[in-house]
Write a structure and sequence with these properties.
With about 70 residues, the protein is mainly beta. It has one helix at about 20-25; strands at about 1-5, 10, 35, 40, 55-60. Helices cover about 10% and strands about 30% of the residues. A hairpin with a 2-residue loop joins β1 (about 1-5) and β2.
């Protein structure tokens, strides 16, 4: 399946059906982040409910600490 992730076209396995599974695929499940799905910001509890389809737009912003 082809998604648009952070402005780039990305092929992901068809077995990935939800935002939660997508984050696990990219090893981001434990990170503090914000996910936008088709221009809607998602609550973390919705990651398991939101299903992905060909061509969906995903923006993932995660925070890094520094000092």
């Amino acid at each position: 399946m082809k998604l648009h992730i952070n402005g780039q076209s990305v092929d992901i396995p068809d077995s990935i059906r939800t935002i939660e599974e997508l984050l696990a695929h990219f090893e981001l499940s434990e990170k503090m982040l914000v996910v936008e799905h088709n221009e809607n910001i998602l609550q973390k509890e919705d990651h398991a409910k939101v299903e992905l389809s060909e061509g969906h737009k995903i923006e993932i912003v995660h925070f890094v600490g520094g000092g």
